[in-house]
Write a structure and sequence with these properties.
2 copies of one chain form a homodimer. With about 210 residues, the first copy, chain A, is of the alpha+beta class. Chain A has helices at about 1-30, 50-55, 85-95, 180-185, 195-200, and strands spanning about 45, 60, 80-85, 105-110, 120-125, 125-130, 130-140, 155, 170. A 5-stranded antiparallel sheet of chain A has the order 2-3-4-7-8. Chain A has a two-stranded antiparallel sheet with strand order 1-9. In chain A, a hairpin with a 2-residue loop joins strand 5 (about 120-125) and strand 6 (about 125-130). The relative contact order of chain A is 0.14. Chains A and B meet through helix 1, strand 2, strand 3, strand 6 and strand 7 of A and helix 1, strand 2, strand 3, strand 6 and strand 7 of B.
């Protein structure tokens, strides 16, 4: 009888522990700035963010620099789809700056085969541009200590070409990415907020 | 002793029940087609989906038909940002069709003021197009019974103009929206999957 009693108490304790385990991680994951999704390897390279994950983050804008309008070779060919985690979007909307650990992903896609020299094509919805294949990833990570020399953000490129992307990337030299952000968007937390309606216009309803 | 034993067993059962409760809703919410986000009013009009909500759904593509390339008046001015709920994206990737109740939102934005006749402008990243202000919403809802006459999808427009959008919309006549989907994309569940890399290319990693 004593054994059964102890077993029952133990079962109670174990299942309460399971309940705690099952509920706690959900709450923690939603706390703003609780954890960065940036993962660095032993050499200090940033690991490729998982496309299955970041393609489900909040989309903030799609600048488009077609090869056809950039002498055949755009610096970023061609659509730039920009994604930010929801918790960091919320923090930006509240405070005007991104929390430490924020990761911003820019995934490129080609445009579908053009029928005009400017890169556009005719479709039932009109003449314009339409997303072709995935074509590269650039990532920025906010870490004021690690990237103090470049206004608190590190810049990484995993290649501007079709899949597969590089699995890890070393920090890009400041002359390659950071200089342009420092020159143009230092006042908006090093991010091109002026191209992202949700952030720029504060997620407007009216 | 007997009382304590029963109490201990009961505690075990209760905490096991709490564990079940804590874990089950997460699974249920991810079941494809569990619930539609479409809300109709008493007159059968579709209520405007909440922008704060759908702008956090999964972004699938950004066709762009600039006014500058469409005689100054594109049918859809100008960026089309297309969003689908994650559970419905997952179902599409698994089955090749969308569950009953799926809502697809296309929110338009203008392009930032152009400096060239085609609608493009020069920015540090190159010559191209950049998201201006929000400029309209079109929505499709899958309901094979309600919209049987138009291949199972209803089409709604909340205006192609700056905010505020209409608060509710009646189903658009088939000659306005559905005919074009029926003529061009009946084989891909009435949706322009060929312009949405995540859906078209099956969310590729490699």
């Amino acid at each position: 009888m004593k054994f059964v009693f102890i077993t029952a108490v133990a079962l109670g304790a174990i299942s309460w522990g399971l309940f705690e385990l099952a509920t706690k991680p959900v709450a923690a994951a939603q706390e703003p700035g609780a954890q960065s999704s940036a993962v660095f390897d032993a050499q200090g390279k940033l690991k490729l963010p998982d496309p299955h994950v970041f393609r489900r983050w909040v989309f903030v804008g799609a600048p488009l620099t077609p090869n056809g309008l950039n002498n055949g070779h755009a610096n970023f060919p061609e659509y730039h789809h920009v994604y930010v985690e929801a918790k960091n979007v919320d923090a930006y909307l509240k405070t005007g700056s991104f929390p430490e650990g924020t990761v911003i992903v820019k995934e490129l896609t080609r445009v579908l085969d053009p029928t005009f020299p400017d890169g556009s094509r005719a479709e039932p919805s009109g003449r314009g541009f339409f997303n072709g294949e995935y074509n590269g990833i650039d990532v920025t990570v906010k870490d004021s200590k690690r990237f103090a020399k470049t206004n608190g953000w590190g810049f990484f490129t995993f290649g501007h070409h079709p899949l597969p992307y590089a699995e890890a990337a070393a920090e890009a030299p400041a002359t390659e990415c950071a200089f342009c952000h420092q020159a143009n968007v230092a006042k908006t937390d090093m991010t091109w907020v002026q191209f992202y309606p949700l952030l720029r216009d504060k997620d407007p309803l009216k």
